Amino acid sequence: xxxxxxxxxxxxYQTQGGAVPAVRGVDLQIQKGEVVGLAGESGCGKSTIASxxxxxxxxxxxxxGEVLIQGENVLAMKPGKLRAxxxxxxxxxxxxxxxxxxxxxxxxxxxxxxxxxxxxxGEKEAKVRVGALLEQVGLxxxxxxxxxxxxxxxxxxxxxxxxxxxxNPSFVIADEPTTALDVMVQAQVLRLLKELxxxxxxxxxxxxxxxxxxVEVCDRLAVMYAGxxxxxxxxxxxxxxxxxxxxKALSAAFPEIGDASFRRKPSGLGxxxxxxxxxxxxxxxxxxxxxxxxxxxxxxxxxYAAGPDRRAACLLVEGALAVxxxxxxxxxxx
Amino acid sequence: xxxxxxxxxxxVALDPxxxxxxEPPPPDTPPSSPRRIAWIRRKRSFIRFVRMYRxxxxxxxxxxxxxxxxxxxxxxxxxxxxxxxxxxxxxxxVPFSRPSWDFPFGTDNLGRSxxxxxxxxxxTSLVVGLAATIMSMAIGAVVGISAGYYGRFTETVLMRxxxxxLVIPFLPLTIVLATVLSPSLGVIIxxxxxxxxxxxxxxxxxxTLSVKERPYVERARALGAGNFHLxxxxxxxxxxxxxxxxTILTIAIAILTESTLAFLGLGDPNTASWGTLxxxxxxxxxxxxxxxxxxxxxxxxxxxxxxxxxxxGFALDEILNPRLRRR
Amino acid sequence: xxxxxxxxxxxxxxxxxxxxxxxxxxxxxxxxxVGLIAGIGGKKATQARAVDGVDMTLGKGEVLALAGESGCGKTTLARxIMGLVQPNEGQILFExxxxxxxxxxxxxxxxMVFQDPTGSLNxxxxxxxxxxxxxxxxxxxxxxxxxxxxxxxxAGMRPPxxxxxxxxxxxxxxxxxxxxxxxxxxxxxxxxVADEPVSNLDAxxxxxxxxxxxxxxxxxxxxILVVTHDLGLAWTIADRVAVMYLGRIVEIGPAEDVLTQAExxxxxxxxxxxxxxxxxxxxxxxGEPPDPTRIPEGCRFNPRCPAVADGSAESEGVANAxxxxxxxxxxLGPNHLAACHLAAKRAGRPVPPPPA
Lengths: 334, 327, 356
Prior knowledge:
The structure holds 3 protein chains of 3 kinds. Chain B is an all-alpha fold. Chain B contains 14 helices and no strands. Chain B has helices at residues 34-55, 57-74, 76-79, 114-150, 152-167, 170-180, 185-195, 197-212, 215-222, 227-263, 274-283, 286-289, 292-320, 322-325. Chain C is 33% helix and 21% strand. In chain C, the strands form 2 sheets. Chain C has an 8-stranded mixed sheet with strand order 6-7-8-3-9-10-12-11, with helices on both faces. Chain C is an alpha/beta fold. In chain C, helix 5 crosses helix 6. Classes of the chains: A alpha/beta, B mainly alpha, C alpha/beta. At the A-C interface, helix 7, helix 8, helix 9 and helix 10 of A face helix 7, helix 8, helix 9, helix 10 and helix 11 of C.
């Protein structure tokens, strides 16, 4: 059994202009101790998935499908049970560490908060635990008496990581954990996350727009576009030989220094991610796709097998067109 | 698979791969000149503004009350003859008479129509309110924008002055000024104008400071724009709405101040205003002898006008202040 | 030290191109604020030396990338070149002429593209007005509408008339950046200074903007100075790369040389942190981004330098120089300069003697 499992998750945000489909049918499995990367551009639904897993979406948002954590459906949990699962089984490192800390409370108290809330320890034990956590993320324990403004950006992100680990979760979601950080600090934080993950045997869902970061830290990769996963598989295979034209374009945005094929040849896609209210017909990527052909606006592709342990939602995947057309025929018969 | 177009990304695909080519064009016909473009833009934003304003019940109620008072003020000569304000008019009735068909709000100690005074008082109150506010707005905007935009020494001097004006007790200063200068409508306007700008200046300065740091101001500067261009094209349009919403509230305060001054006997004795009407009533013991028809009309008129301006001000604030808009 | 600075070594533009923009010994210092009482008490304001002696040349039609961590002074240098901050010392020369007080004519020729396309467009102005702004400021003669349309279509917004009446919030991030670029193009500039032009954009859109910049260079011979923290971006578009550390250029040269055979340990450290498959195990510099209010003695990189830390500087006999001798750029390869005692020693240059 997977530690975390998403089955056909749909999320619709309610706005004044009507329901906005942010996630349109996502299946994802994360095994114990596995790091899965979720890549995609802003608005593709990747952060929505993070919030949906812990049921942190705004009230009124419509979520269907199943989110199973250790076999239990988060979406159907009672509030008390949900609180127990949040933080002690699954926790989240938010994007924008700068703003997620309360500026008027000592960081030690903020880290201790989830420990005390979940009744895992008394005040005194909690303090010992906070010290240990800070050490784990590479900060001296005495810093627990500091206020957030006394820390640099990288140190704040370390505190956020310590908070996420406070209740010994088995699963951590990292939502753009390094986006606002400087290059050098970003490398330090990434390495810390990877080390912690390995030492503690954590399962992780790592969300970022930066495909090259994901390749560094993830075992498996899922690429999202317009609310769906368009490609998934082992991260090195995907980065090295993308099957979906969108993944190809994304990986080209992160050139390899020294590789002459990137030199003076910036490549990118024309156009912009589609408006979720007005998705194109067929494959939602076809208006921007350099490889699109006449069938693309007609057939909405599902994920097709594209090599060992790999799937991609593109009709150009070998054999995909045949599968799609027989399925179309079946639907037409019905 | 043979039907596929050639693959790969064209290195300079700026033209053929125009991703916007298959989007439908906007409904408007292409505009013919820059001036027309600016005009269309203004018309559109005005229509949008009206549409939003009409959604606000409070704003609409305030606006209706205001329009009523405005009509009364404009058509005062048609509603009540100015002769009715004179103590020697033959049209005057019995002193201290209760409201009747001839004298809808009753009469005062000289038998003059209180209705006529209330109608003519609307003129004074609105004129003083608007004129004093325009003055206060102009001073506040100039001081606030200069302080916020130029910063450094200018800011220190201007803002300390503003602080000084802000902390001196407003009413005593007004009273002193009104006493020293001989009472006339112009003086009243001047006195209210020069004492009510500091709050505006502070708000405008705060907004200017925030606009000044926006990247588009820096972009304009990098394009070669001078201070005049930056202030008139970027700072003012972005400060304007806040200034406007604040101004409407200032009118209410100005009207109230005019009434207060007049009530204290510092108004222009030759002009009919709600304040002088109240003062007169008070001096003749209207409050103690139960002459309610003498006190109620000017009192209620002040309350309604101030309330109407305040309601409009709040409604405008909700629309024009982007921070409140997305609540 | 003074003779090093008297005749500074500066990298030349590639392919012997004419220099368009030159920066000579530029210093920009920001003074911190001191309270009145503390000032009377003799407390001095802390000075942040954001740009601390930069010499640089940009050739006609050349793309130069200025790279470094945040706080290294690269954005301040760009802003100083635009005349948006006043240098304390040094000169900027445009086509051989030093900048005077009146920057208006200069600003027509040198344009800037900003990091945040959303913020750099006034939300109350239509696209037309945003693009026409520069034309109006400089009172450019001709049919304004035609000029705006041409600038927009050059920036890849076609057909331009369709965008005239739109507001910035109705466009996507990539389109907004094109509008900013169109606003710059309308004035037919010779130099574009682009401060992190794509870092706020989605990955799939970045390539398009970079391609547009390359196209402008090829078509109109516009020189481009790109400020970036991303060495991958530098590899993709730049002819030359300058790496800045604590207000100074520590390495400059042709992109191929700097990015594949870096001489300065700092450049190597930056290259090490470019994410790459399997790269997580490579060494990274410890510590926080450097603080321009406290520039160390000697080589400014010495407290974080891996060569000083692992003793390789010591064993080659330059450790003392690293800790005590400030240094300028030395030519170590063809048009490839770096400010490193160790690299200079390895290239056979004499080690400066300890101070008397």
